Predict the 3D structure of the following.
Amino acid sequence: MPYPDALAGRSSLPRQIYHITICTHQRQPFFANWQTGRLAVQELKRLQDERQAESLAWVLMPDHIHWLMQLSESASLTDMIRLFKGRSARIVNMSLEREGRLWQRGFNEHALREEEDIRHIARYIVANPLRAGLVNRIGDYPLWDAIWL
């Protein structure tokens, strides 16, 4: 049964797989430095450790993140994204000695349908740095992961 979510028009489906996209505030390339990006990645891993969601694949680009994840049985999608954005903003801002918004308001989500090929979507996600011309081989890009490695 879906749980009503804090934002109108959204619902959280337990165990649902979502493709999440979150952009930085004004598309600023906060994560062009991979060391800064690792701080945000720590917060993805923390959510998994807290059993909020299971990360299936993700890539942190200089100005946005793509995240393929499965929501836990008890987590709210909006609350979990709010936690990620708040925690990562706090630690990244501290590291960059700045204040202000790190992420744009809101996020985009796509709840995968049963017939969609999860591995195909994961390959699309992790290939973002290749399509953006940031690297010639995905192995050269430091801010991505997938469970199928």
Summary: The chain has a mean pLDDT of 93. Residues 3-146 form a domain with the Alpha-Beta Plaits fold (CATH 3.30.70.1290). The chain has four helices and seven strands.
